[in-house]
Amino acid sequence: MGKLLIVGSVNIDSIETPFGKADSIVGGSAPFISLAASQFKVNSAIVSVVGEDFPQSYLNILEEHRVDVSGIEIVKGGKTFFWKGKYHNDLNSRDTLVTELNVLADFNPIVPDNFKNADVVMLGNLHPSIQMSVINQMEERPKLIVLDTMNFWMDNTLDELKDVIQHIDVITINDEEARQLTGEYSLVKAAAKIQDMGPKYVVIKKGEHGALLFNEQQIFFAPALPLEEVFDPTGAGDTFAGGFAGFLAEAKNISFESMKNAIIHGSNLASFCVEKFGTERLVNLQKHEVDNRLLQFKELTQFNIELT
Fold first, then answer.
1. C-alpha triplet 61, 67, 72: angle, nearest 5°
2. CB environment 96-113: b (16+ within 10 A), e (fewer)
3. In whole angstroms, what is the distance from residue 71 CA to residue 64 CA?
4. Residue 44 to residues 47, 100, 267: CA-CA distances in angstroms?
5. Which of 168, 175, 134, 127 is nearest to 46 (CA)?
């Protein structure tokens, strides 16, 4: 089995969408990434931090999905990172109502010894100094280092972020962030500029409009599956990243062709994530459901054409 190391936040979230509310549910990048990756034959571990208020029952759920939680520090007397948000009617925009870093403010990541030789490292959306610390703790260069980031770090820690970007293989960001990072409106030009910064592969997420994969002069586009209802988009991007990294950790094949498949698997799993609040859908997701929806993706994207 491939080994996947996941670095990311573990939250307590309160979310409101046009379809309802959910208070005090588990969120953060690491749970979404790890649950998505659990759909593949991989051994994964989370490096993160929570407070004493974090439910042990949820750590048990992660372990039931073959996720090593020994790298999740539990701070006695501490409070877990808390986020509260409200989505607008279009579900593409939201208002952050409360952000409490709590124990995440002083987080010093420690990679478990048995994962310092991980095949794939998935650096979830965190401060670049935390991401760099994890890279420096690896005993040998992983086959693949994937980084997710956001505009907040571009606004506040750009130099540190660019330093991390020099050490990774794949970056996953959305279209707005790609434009901000490079100053280019064209996503093709933006991807080329990002590749010049270090990563060989650039994945630009476009939400309900799919994702683009760039490698040198090669481009691949994967659509998002059209859904009748989107209940809660929180964590969809992290679920995509988890499916992407999980597939590659299992495949042990780092190539453009393999990444095309990884993009489809990531998009497929993200389509389940949005059907329930938080991680609820991913926790109970069955393999036959995943396989059936993959066939829908195949029908959506394949066609025959005759040129005359």
1. 90
2. eeeeeebbbeebebebbe
3. 16
4. 10, 27, 20
5. 134
Q: Which residue has the tokens 């993706």?
A: 297
Provide the pairing of β-strand 94-100 with 82-87: antiparallel
C-alpha–C-alpha distance, residues 292 and 287, integer Å = 9
Note the Cα 228 to chain centre separation in Å. Answer: 24
What is the pTM assigned to this prediction? 0.94
CB 92 within 8 A of CB 100: no
DSSP-assigned states of every residue in 32-56: HHHHHHTTSSEEEEEEEEEETTS-H
Nearest Cα residue to 83 out of 136, 24, 138, 134: 24
The residue count for the chain = 308
- Spatial distance between the Cα atoms of 127 and 113, rounded to a whole number of angstroms: 22
Mean pLDDT of all residues in 244-270: 94
Residue 212 pLDDT: 96
- Sorted by where each begins, the domain ranges of the chain are 2-301
Q: What are the Cα distances from residue 192, in Å, to 51, 202, 213?
A: 41, 9, 11
> Region 71-84: what's the mean pLDDT?
96
| CATH tag, 2-301 | 3.40.1190.20
